[in-house]
Design goal:
Length: 417
């Protein structure tokens, strides 16, 4: 039996292929059960994200073709349509691969934390479906502990690498507690949604979404317990904002120096943190000259992101060292378990021989044989029974010229030349 990983990701396959091999959440449980029922497969789990689909299996005789055939059949694709984009890992490479994926070293954004949660979801789905066995279960547990070690001992996930996340991290440097602040977010696109999510996760007290189309602002605000305003209402609310992030497609500035200056006076010079993520800019550059205003543009954040990406690359080197160490630990543990099962089976065999010989000895005593006769017979029987199989196997090894087995026997039994 062999553990394998079979998959595609954003580096090996275009999105047109990835989307056809993806497993939506609602079918994942049934899919992994169906895979597990295939011949030669005894354990199975499926990881499916927008950037990768990976299947982890315990298969007989490294039978990867069984998994490929199942994947094509289940996703209703011809093997030739997706097989060129696949990669497969076994043995040490499989262990190393899973550790690297969970640690974010294989992600499009180096060190991103979401993949670990997605891998835990894959594990929990397989566990609930009853498709995990001892080996895959242990591998997942070591994967999670390795990823945790990487997160704890390196800075791979501590630096922001998106403009939305960078904006929120900067706001945390200016305000001690985001939970006491109010944010106005201008726009309702993907960047503003991501900014709202980061702020919400960091405990922001109040979020106001301003957008030219009120309904879009309202839909977004509902997700984060906020409320929406039309863009025309913005001047009435600027003074409420401790944090302002803007990202619209407007060709003209939305916030001018005069409007912000008036808001600062109403706030009694309490500072405002402003981030302009739009190109062309939504906030007039002259606003940066005002006291008590901290204005950052997308270029300012990009410089931060570039520095942080470099920082993550350095942390990734440390992460690789941690992963290699944990690969060795896992292999050592698996080998130890393998020999332990052999020892247990050998002891059980010896104890069975012992019990049979003992029963015969007790029967002989009950029939009146002397203790000396019984003891001699017991010793003779035990010696012959315990030596029979090893001696028989050594003779076969000699006949088949398997001299390495004979050498191993001499080492195991400590027979000196």
């Amino acid at each position: 039996m062999t553990l394998i990983a079979l998959g595609i990701n954003y580096t090996t396959a275009p999105v047109s292929i990835r989307e056809r091999l993806a497993f939506p959440t609602e079918i994942l449980t049934d899919a992994v059960k169906n895979l597990w029922r295939q011949q030669h497969i005894s354990e199975a789990a499926i990881l499916s994200t927008c950037n990768r689909t990976e299947i982890y299996c315990h298969v007989q005789n490294s039978d990867i073709e069984t998994v490929i055939d199942w994947l094509g059949s289940h996703r209703q694709l011809k093997n030739a349509d997706f097989k060129p984009y696949l990669y497969a890992h076994t043995d040490n490479a499989l262990i190393r691969h899973m550790f690297r994926v969970a640690s974010g070293l294989e992600s499009m954004v180096l060190g991103e934390p979401q993949i670990l949660g997605q891998m835990k979801t894959a594990y929990q789905t397989a566990q609930q479906a009853g498709t995990l066995g001892k080996d895959l279960n242990q591998l997942f547990q070591h994967t999670f502990s390795t990823a945790k070690k990487v997160r704890t001992d390196t800075a791979i996930g501590s630096s922001s690498v998106s403009v939305a996340f960078a904006a929120v991290q900067l706001s945390k440097q200016i305000f001690d507690k985001l939970s006491e602040q109010t944010a106005i977010l201008i726009g309702a696109g993907e960047t503003i949604e991501l900014t709202a999510r980061h702020l919400y996760q960091n405990g922001i007290r109040r979020i106001i979404i301003a957008n030219r189309t009120y309904d879009n602002a309202h839909m977004l605000a509902q997700q984060f317990d906020g409320y929406a305003i039309a863009l025309s209402e913005l001047p009435l609310h600027i003074a409420e904002a401790d944090i302002i992030v803007s990202s619209t497609a407007s060709q003209l500035p939305i916030l001018g120096k005069g409007l912000v200056e008036s808001a600062i006076k109403k706030r009694k010079h309490k500072p405002i943190f402003m981030v302009d993520l739009a190109v062309p800019r939504d906030i007039e550059p002259e606003v940066a000259k005002l006291n008590d205003v901290y204005l950052y543009t997308v270029d300012d954040l990009q410089n931060i992101i570039t520095e942080n990406i470099n920082s993550r690359k350095q942390a990734a080197e440390q992460a690789e060292e941690i992963i290699e160490t944990h690969v060795e630990h896992f292999l050592t543990e698996m080998k130890a378990q393998s020999v332990q099962s052999t020892i247990i089976e050998y002891r059980q065999q010896a104890e069975a021989i012992q019990q049979t010989a003992l029963n015969k000895a007790l029967t002989a005593l009950n029939k009146g044989k002397t203790a000396e006769e019984v003891m001699q017979q017991l010793a003779h029987t035990l010696t012959n029974k315990l030596l029979h199989t090893p001696c028989s196997q050594l003779r076969k090894a000699s006949e088949n010229e398997r001299y390495e087995l004979i050498a191993a026997a001499r080492e195991i039994f400590q027979l000196h030349d």
